[in-house]
Amino acid sequence: MLHKKTYNAMELKTQHGTLIIEGPIPSEKLASYEFHEDLTSFRVPEQQKKALVEIAKLPEGRIIVARDQHMIVGYVTYLYPDPLERWSEGKMENLIELGAIEVIPKYRGKSVGKNLLTVSMMDDAMNDYIIITTEYYWHWDLKGTGLNVWEYRKVMEKMMNSGGLIWFATDDPEISSHPANCLMVRIGSRVDPDSIQQFDRLRFRHRFMY
């Protein structure tokens, strides 16, 4: 069964208290938690919470959260790629995208993002998937962190590496539009060779770049 989800959890001690990192979270449980007011990177908090609850209802949708008691202070999402992106063109059942990762400023630099990815990959079912994430520098909080593009890219890449995602080349025009943008990928241990070849065809539309 491709979309099997096995719940995992861990505690992370920080100077601000102990966080619970857990998931994948069922939509009903997610709806019962509060969403921190500083989770504003993508939408206003209430709208983002609603979006995450909807993702959690999807067969392939996975939400891993970091919470301080009943308050969500960070999360990561996994779901099928946007239908408008090239990654959805192959209609691959075993390709999912790490769509968003967000941690409130208070807990940044405390390994929350890294541990969200670690808990994500504790589920053995993740070995059935090719997991991708597309990183664009214009989404990064350069102002809030005080980092330049390359420093932020280095931090982001290190965090993704903790979940087993590594840099992959692609000729996707949006990713290629700036050298700091990148595609990062984790190919699960049970992904078949045909799926890997199909993914390679999505990565490169121009044969000469193979």
From TrEMBL:
Organism: Bacillus mesophilus
Keywords, alphabetical: Acetoin catabolism, Acyltransferase, Transferase
Listed pathway(s): Ketone degradation; acetoin degradation
Boundaries of every N-acetyltransferase domain copy: 19-161
GO molecular function, one term: acyltransferase activity, transferring groups other than amino-acyl groups
Pfam families to which the protein is assigned, alphabetical: Acetyltransf_1 (PF00583)
First-tier enzyme category under EC: transferase
Full protein name: Acetoin utilization protein AcuA
